[in-house]
Automatic annotation (TrEMBL), chains A, B:
<dbReference type="InterPro" id="IPR017142">
    <property type="entry name" value="Nitric_oxide_synthase_Oase-su"/>
</dbReference>
<dbReference type="InterPro" id="IPR044940">
    <property type="entry name" value="NOS_dom_2"/>
</dbReference>
<keyword id="KW-0560">Oxidoreductase</keyword>
<comment type="similarity">
    <text>Belongs to the NOS family. Bacterial NOS oxygenase subfamily.</text>
</comment>
<protein>
    <recommendedName>
        <fullName>Nitric oxide synthase oxygenase</fullName>
        <ecNumber>1.14.14.47</ecNumber>
    </recommendedName>
</protein>
<dbReference type="InterPro" id="IPR004030">
    <property type="entry name" value="NOS_N"/>
</dbReference>
<keyword id="KW-0349">Heme</keyword>
<keyword id="KW-0479">Metal-binding</keyword>
<dbReference type="InterPro" id="IPR036119">
    <property type="entry name" value="NOS_N_sf"/>
</dbReference>
<feature type="domain" description="Nitric oxide synthase (NOS)">
    <location>
        <begin position="4"/>
        <end position="360"/>
    </location>
</feature>
<comment type="subunit">
    <text>Homodimer.</text>
</comment>
<dbReference type="InterPro" id="IPR050607">
    <property type="entry name" value="NOS"/>
</dbReference>
<comment type="function">
    <text>Catalyzes the production of nitric oxide.</text>
</comment>
<dbReference type="InterPro" id="IPR044943">
    <property type="entry name" value="NOS_dom_1"/>
</dbReference>
<dbReference type="Pfam" id="PF02898">
    <property type="entry name" value="NO_synthase"/>
</dbReference>
<keyword id="KW-0408">Iron</keyword>
<dbReference type="InterPro" id="IPR044944">
    <property type="entry name" value="NOS_dom_3"/>
</dbReference>
């Protein structure tokens, strides 16, 4: 726990950067008013502009994120006044629609009430849109990574159809109240059917993925304040869907299926059947998103943009923190500049943090 | 600098492991004789068996090496008695022939005189077999990574033909004497012509690579002793040649050439032309080595073998040290188990170390 003086210091550090960056006109008496608020209420309330800057800095400091060139374009939606599950759910749907923007995806973060301002708000889901996973006699339908959470939702009363790409409900909990669950309106969820420019069997596989990854389970911390519900989203990098979600053995595990359809023998590791199937799934995902008019980046472009971010940060006199093993994309690594670089990786605030799950 | 007592302690640590591993029958008076030798001669002389064990442990401790499952099969050639450049060169040729073994490659290390036993022996080359690089008006023929060293060799009197895959001479220096250079006998260097199972244009590219990578510039340290010339070699993993040596932009840079021959436009990053060219070069290298009867491993097999090594080490009560960013192969990373693991990475002796170049 922070002492009050420590809160003042955290606020001071933050406000200084804020002004150094010249993003906000100087307010010399701002710190004094924060100090007063902390001493009277035990916490303080960033202005909307400060909150926005905090979100942008948190993104800029996310050492595992390759997409940081665009941190200044983050839209921050201020929903700190909401106290009710229904309103919070409405705000989440609003986030999704605004971020989706009919395919011209915009980076968005929605900030709910700070931890010390009332009962803690938590969204149980990993992401706003995710597909459920169902186990039956050792066979899994849907996303294996969501089996446990799916069971939890069923326990809460959710009645699934048990299909391969079934949207999970959103579960919101405030303090120790009973969690409430909600179904996303179908029309608010943009999805892309996966086809391939040449390999027509992809249609038969009936694969699809959703357009916008909205992380809902990380905490956003800035200047001593902790926002336990502050979902954020950008657009996808193709490999996230194609090399991980659809390909990982403990996810949709499509490599053997695609290889077989390609006529490759899965006996010969030497002939790189996995690599060949992986490549075609990746081409398919990029192709399908593009065709559907949904923004997505490929790993080569993202890698270049990240190097540009590094240059810009250096010019601004800041050292880039980065986690090499996350920044380097999970395929064709050595063909990208990021593979050949190294970075320090110290955590600095504002930032995003994992938090213990409420439902485990 | 170590004190004599420190040398005794280092020897003691080593001898203990040596015996624990039950690789060698216990010799209770061995330590006493080492102590005597250190106090009289200032250094000690491992037996042939101890040297072999030291080499195997150094390989086992090499946290960047994915090939460690086979560390117990390392052949260690004892050439500690050689004092003359010509003899040392002969021993290097012998290493190459024995390791090559007509394609059925054997892991081999050759150990030359210890640092404190006389003037320091150094092999200037990075590897025993490497192709020269020539710069002419900004255009490079051969391996760009070897341009600087190639110029050094020319300065010593070497007369190259300036072709794309020209064997560099071997440069040996003892103490501060003039370095001596030697041409490898052509017949001692096994090379593989790169062709592709389906893409016949590969023949026109006239690519080849050598069969055995023999690292010649790292120091081998064991139990307080330092061997500044102790070349070691295994067999190749395909990506080392295909994803790095032939593909890196600052090496043979073949991706644009192969992509063009494949009819891919290098404009569209989105269609993954780099990934597609990379994949075909990798298939070509594995296919060509196999066809030529030269041992090589693919990255999937190597990754599995490394996981088996981890299991075995655990069973033996030892913790595996590993450098994730080197262990994880430079392509299709997330399709392999190693991608999903984490390791500690502390250095422990015996091991291999970089040393300052003598010729820079
Ligand atoms: C605009 C497009 C964006 C792209 C292309 C992008 C790309 C990525 C990628 C590829 C990862 C690794 C994901 C994985 O391997 O699981 C990542 C992680 C991350 N990104 Fe971004 N990102 C974007 C926007 C954002 C935004 C808007 C934020 C926050 C405001 C953000 C914060 C993070 C964080 C905190 C992580 C680490 C997540 C974790 O530790 O699990 N990113 N990003
Ligand atoms: C038997 C087959 C072997 C395979 C397949 C293998 C594989 C590899 C690979 C892929 C690397 C990374 C190379 C790079 O990215 O530049 C590596 C590094 C390394 N290996 Fe092995 N290796 C083998 C044998 C050996 C042997 C016999 C030794 C020593 C006795 C050894 C010691 C090392 C060391 C010290 C490194 C790190 C080199 C550096 O830091 O530059 N390896 N190995």
């Amino acid at each position: 726990m922070y002492s009050k003086e420590e809160y003042v210091q955290e606020a001071e550090k933050f406000i200084k950067v804020h002004h150094q960056d010249k993003w906000y006109e100087k307010k010399l008496n701002r710190l004094e008013s924060i100090r007063e608020q902390i001493y009277s209420e035990g916490t303080w309330t960033p202005t909307k502009d400060e909150l926005k800057k905090g979100g942008q800095m948190a993104w800029r400091n996310s050492s595992r994120c390759i997409g940081r060139l665009f941190h200044m374009s983050l839209n921050v939606k201020d929903k700190r006044n909401l106290t009710d599950e229904n309103e919070i759910f409405e705000a989440l749907v609003e986030h999704l629609q605004e971020a989706t923007n009919e395919g011209r995806i915009k980076p968005v973060m929605t900030v709910f009430r700070e931890r010390r301002k009332g009962e803690e708000i938590r969204i149980w889901n990993k992401q706003l849109v995710r597909y459920a996973g169902f186990e039956n006699d050792g066979v899994i339908t849907g996303d294996p990574a969501e089996v446990e959470f799916t069971n939890k939702c069923i326990g809460l009363g959710w009645k699934p159809k048990r299909t391969a790409f079934e949207l999970l409900p959103i579960v919101i909990q405030i303090g120790n109240r009973e969690p409430k669950w909600f179904e996303l309106p179908r029309k608010s969820v943009l999805e892309v059917k996966i086809t391939h420019p040449e390999l027509h069997f992809f249609e038969e596989l009936q694969l699809k993925w959703y357009a916008v990854p909205v992380i809902t389970d990380m905490a956003f911390r800035m200047a001593g304040l902790e926002y336990t519900a502050a979902p954020f989203s950008g657009w996808y990098m193709g490999t996230e869907i194609a090399a991980r979600n659809l390909a990982d053995e403990n996810r949709y595990n499509m490599l053997p299926v695609v290889a077989k359809k390609m006529g490759l023998s899965t006996n010969s590791r030497h002939d790189l059947w996995k690599d060949r199937a992986l490549l075609e799934i990746n081409r398919a995902v990029l192709y399908s998103f593009k065709k559907a008019g949904v923004m997505i980046t490929d790993h080569h472009t993202a890698s270049r943009q990240f190097m540009k971010f590094c240059t810009r940060e250096k010019e601004a006199g800041r050292e880039v923190m980065a986690d090499w093993s996350w920044i380097v994309p999970p395929m064709s690594a050595s063909t990208m500049e990021v593979f050949h670089k190294q970075w320090q990786d110290n955590v600095s605030d504002p930032n995003f943090y994992y938090q213990e799950k409420k439902w485990k």
